[in-house]
Amino acid sequence: NAGVTQTPKFRILKIGQSMTLQCTQDMNHNYMYWYRQDPGMGLKLIYYSVGAGITDKGEVPNGYNVSRSTTEDFPLRLELAAPSQTSVYFCASSYRDRQEPQHFGDGTRLSIL
Amino acid sequence: QKEVEQNSGPLSVPEGAIASLNCTYSDRGSQSFFWYRQYSGKSPELIMFIYSNGDKEDGRFTAQLNKASQYVSLLIRDSQPSDSATYLCAVKHFGNEKLTFGTGTRLTIIP
Fold first, then answer.
1. Closest CA to B93 of B63, B61, B62, B70
2. CA-nearest residue of chain A to B96?
3. Given phi > 0 = left and psi -120 to 50 = alpha, else beta, which region is A61?
4. Which chain B residues have a beta carbon less than 8 Å from that of A42?
5. For residue range A45-82, what is the model confidence (pLDDT) as tens digits?
6. Of B9, B24, B22, B26, residue with least CA distance to B76
7. Which residue among A37, A39, A113, B8 is least enclosed by CB atoms within 10 Å?
8. Strand duo B105-110 + B85-93: pairing
9. Are strands A108-112 and A10-13 parallel, antiparallel or unpaired?
């Protein structure tokens, strides 16, 4: 049972480069989320989606873009990487219900140099 | 004002004792409350959730919710060294698909 799968696990980018962080889930969850976590800090919501074709900004969306063409996939795009985007990125998903928790992927550790 | 507040710790507890982790929240419309455990370098994993006032027990873990005081806590009985981790409190608001996370409490169990 794969759950939420994120790729890659680690990546080093140069300033100004672009990349896409992949996230896929096999639990048929409606909702998907992207968070970033800086050292010693909590999780900050970047973008989220309540279903295919629907996305919305979270707390820290600047410098990122997302798309949700299928229920399973929710990629996060960094267009012009900046050192401030060095962080650990987590993708999560959940059912639509107040009692339902979010299930997290293993994370992508991204360094911008 | 932070929406979800936790004492960042570190909280040190002797092995076998009870660890008590606390969380307060500001939005009275909050309806569901989650505790996640996060080991260093790993992703958050769900420990418990609670949405009714009172206590909810699961093995060595007990979640307590007091909506009038806007307070939720996690008790860990018979603490083990493997319980050493950061514990994140998360709150889901009524009619909102998002979770708001606290910054976490770092717990260390001393053998």
1. B70
2. A98
3. alpha
4. 88, 101-104
5. 999 999 999 999 999 999 999 999 999 999 999 989 99
6. B22
7. A39
8. antiparallel
9. parallel
